[in-house]
Amino acid sequence: MKNILIILLSTILFSSCKQDKKDEVKTAVSNEKLSTEKPFILTVEKIDSTQFPASIKYEGFIKNAVRWKDKSGDNIVITTETGYHFNKKFVHETDGSDAELFAYHFIVSGNEVKQTWKVYDYISDCPVDIVASFVKNTFQVTDLDKNGTAEIWLMYKTVCHGDVSPCDMKIIMYEGNTKYAMRGENKVAVGIDDNGKKQFEGGEYKLDENFKKGTKVFKEFAQKLWSDNVIETWED
Questions:
Q1: Which of 25, 63, 147, 205 is at 20 to 30 A from 192, Cα to Cα?
Q2: pLDDT band for position 234 (50/70/90)?
Q3: How many Cα atoms sit within 13 Å of 111 on the Cβ side?
Q4: Which helix (H) or strand (E) holds 32?
Q5: Which SS3 state, helix, strand or coil, does residue 13 take?
Q6: CA distance 167 to 155
Q7: Which residues lie closer than 8 Å to 205 by C-beta, 6 or more apart?
């Protein structure tokens, strides 16, 4: 009887050790897979209209056109402006001009192209100076939260005015189909005080709920982009 118990205990211990070794092998293989997975690297390529799929349609003159691949697929973003023009779709009560801007996002899959979002803004029937343009050197494609889905950053100004006053200014960001918005005015110098210090008007902004409640790095990036470009330089 004693010998039988010894044999049973030996069998149980051997089986346990064998299972532990199997678990160790599985863990080792699992860790090896994790260590060999390549991190996502965002590579954005500038393209021009000759490289667009034939089915892509857009309005205005191209300011930016880029292409990249991420978790969403094969992406193309195009930003355009019309500049001063006359568009019959607007009601004109004066002899004023119009100006429009656009941003388009497409996913390319084989021979199919799907537009997933579009940003559009404009000034119409303006008899004085028109601004409807993207802020120079602010268009960016990033992956700030390192999740493999790119963020697209747009910043632009719109106004109809005949004096030195602030423009409406916006930052629009998309991650996938989620839109984030920051809206306010740029800042312009309007005079000098008694101490010889420049006086400014404008500069305030409001964040939408997605920026307020979303990933911290998005909000911080938007605030820095605003701060870096809030003062009107008259060079755009």
A1: 205
A2: low
A3: 0
A4: helix 2-36
A5: helix
A6: 12
A7: 169, 182, 183, 184, 185, 226
What are the boundaries of each domain within the chain? Answer: 45-229
Instruction: Please report, for residues 58, 77, 104, 147, 212, the alpha-carbon distance to residue 216 in angstroms, rounded to integers and kept in the order given.
Output: 33, 25, 26, 14, 8
Q: What are phi and psi of 33, to 5 degrees?
A: -60, -45
pLDDT for 124-149, tens place per residue? 999 999 999 999 999 999 999 999 99
Indicate the Cα dihedral angle 101, 102, 103, 104, nearest 10°.
-170
The pTM of the full predicted model, rounded to 2 decimals, is: 0.82
CA separation for the pair 207, 187 (Å, rounded)? 17
3-class DSSP assignment, residue 118: strand
Q: What would the pLDDT profile of 8-58 be if each residue is shown by its tens digit?
A: 445 544 455 455 544 554 444 445 444 456 788 999 999 999 999 999 999
Q: Please list, residue by residue across 65-91, b when 16 or more beta carbons sit within 10 angstroms of its beta carbon and e when fewer do.
A: bbbbebebeebbbbbbbbeeeeeeeee
By three-state DSSP, how is residue 58 classified? coil
Which tokens belong to 149? 């889905």
